[in-house]
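Hi R.,

Here are the chain sequences for the assembly we discussed:
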Amino acid sequence: MHYPEGTVRSLLNTNQVTKATRQALTERLTSPAYQPQFFSASEFALLQAICDRLLPQEADDKPIDIAGGIDKRLFQNESDGWRYDTMPADGDAYKLGLAGVEETAQLFFQQAFQQLAGSQQDDVLLNIQRSVAPGKTWEHLPAGRFFEELLTEATHIYYSHPLAQEAIGYVGMADVPTWQRISLNELEDREPRKVNG
Amino acid sequence: MLTETVDAVVIGTGAGGAPLLARLAAAGLKVVALEAGKHWNPATDFATDEKSQEKLFWNDERLSAGNDPLPFGSNNSGTGVGGSTLHYTAYTPRAQPDDLQLRTDFGVGEDWPLGFDQLEPYYDEVEQFLGVSGPSPYPWGPTRKRAYALGPLPINGAGQLMERGCKTLGIKTSPAANAALSAGYYQEGVGHRPACANRGFCQAGCTIGAKASMDVTYIPLAIHHGAEIRPESFVTQLVQDASGRISEVIYIRNGQEERQRCRFVFLCAGTVETARLLLMNNLANSSGQVGRNLMAHTGLQIWGEFEEDVRPYKGIPGALISEDTHRPKQADFAGGYLLQSIGVMPLTYISQMARARGIWGQDLKRAALAYNHVAGINILGDCLPYEQNYLELSDEKDIRGLPKPRIYFSNGDNEKRMTAHADKIMRDIWDAAGAKNVWAFPRNAHVIGTCRMGTDPAKAVVNPDGQSFDIPNLFISDNSTFPSALSVNPALTIMALSLRTADRFLEKYK
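And here is the predicted structure of the full complex:
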């Protein structure tokens, strides 16, 4: 079961979406390839590899750029309003955490994270998530919290993208005509139905 | 302007500042409001998009400590003319009389230094002015003197499911009271506001003005009566004269330091920023209580997946309420809580699911695919003040060079027992309604306390009129003064108290 493709994209060009909404979503949809400004090239590649495990994407010519979104936020020094007191500043936490992922991968498999098979990468990440991963880095950085913050931010960036919203059948952005059919199982014509296959 | 002395400076334009600002202006006082955030134009500035509306949250970093560190930002704090009401869900139940006397009834927590009779006329006034939509009669609490201004909003999918589960279990429910219009509404001094479009986006900004955020209600009324609003003005200092009164407020606008002389100051910046400003300036704290008694509502959410199409982005998010759990029989805790159905926007839902359940990979994508079929129930419950929960200034500096606040929060036994009680009830409701894949999101919402009101200057920061014991021309009007957390959302009570504070002030000083 999945939702049909193209639902959000086709709504974006109609008067069912406000100008501000269209602008916000179109920008995200058409953003050019991003060059890292906060992370080094190797850190960025590692972060991309991790995000591929957290939110796997089909082989696509234009995947949703999660790592780019994280880099951009850190480069612009933006915050979401709070931070766990046990964690260092966001940028330091990410740099330290990436080093920790690499360290754990080496200790487990004597190989770089990016060289590992998918299931081995998951093993590394799961141990970090459960705060039982080996490595000196994790003595300075709470592994579980690092994973929680990374997963939450990656998820946030991914599902803010119009293509990810299409995939879950969300069309709340098309609110100009108002929603009149709001009871259980009541759908407006512009709301997509799930299809088989 | 620099040399002019205005009657009052109001710091913050949210639920605590805006009603009071309008009242003082209507009484003919020369008043200036300083607001840290921008003055938005909802129609053009607010996209129906969660990420682009993050600009409405208070995003300056706060440090969250304790066993249950509190999330800020999207969870509970706003910026912009209108403050946190720009992104409140407009859920406006009244507190009940016994909410104000926890110590009397249970021997723990604190009583309020004023009774329900002091708040009731203001509840009524605020509800009529905002155009609150709600049922008549309302099934819980004292009999209301007037029906809500408008009939209830339609019940969405989540509300219908909760109603179904509650009916099976014999739990009474009702459409909730929401400060969103179920029909067009006209107010002198404000103008016409249209009916709610069911766009479900209340936790971000309303684009059409149907939701009663302060920027479309009390702020236009205040401007109508001659108040001046200065947006993007971040207050850093309150300057005392030789007699100890605040004579001047210093703020940063466009990177420049500006000053405003005044006869009175009303600090309405919310639980965190109000306490932070006082601590930074070492003011109004002879009791040592500024930053203490910090509370946060128990806010457990239970989510489930249903066969039915729910489309949780439609309709008012908090559509259905039950206050049958206000004082549950044979409860092993003090106080109580309310139950409400919740709809949710996808980004909020899926990110909090990732955080709380820790699922990722294909599991996460599968769970996200169920979004159109999810519904939630939420509680808001009382929270006791504890020694271990407080706000302090950290050594870390923000972008302005000011100390970041560090907030300690750990749920006590009372909150844990209340949450366990609610967890069972909500799971039973969802079981009865036919939910699958039920999961819990433990959380605390609505940060409250830090500048408690009371009658004893050794134990409280302000008196029952919101006036500082230490500095007679300084008043506080926001959720920082609440002596207890209440078993309901705070916004309506903040507004009611704001009008009361204004009236008490005008009686005495005008």
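The two ends of chain A are 6 Å apart (CA to CA). The beta strands of chain A are 82-84.

Let me know if anything looks off.

Best,
T.
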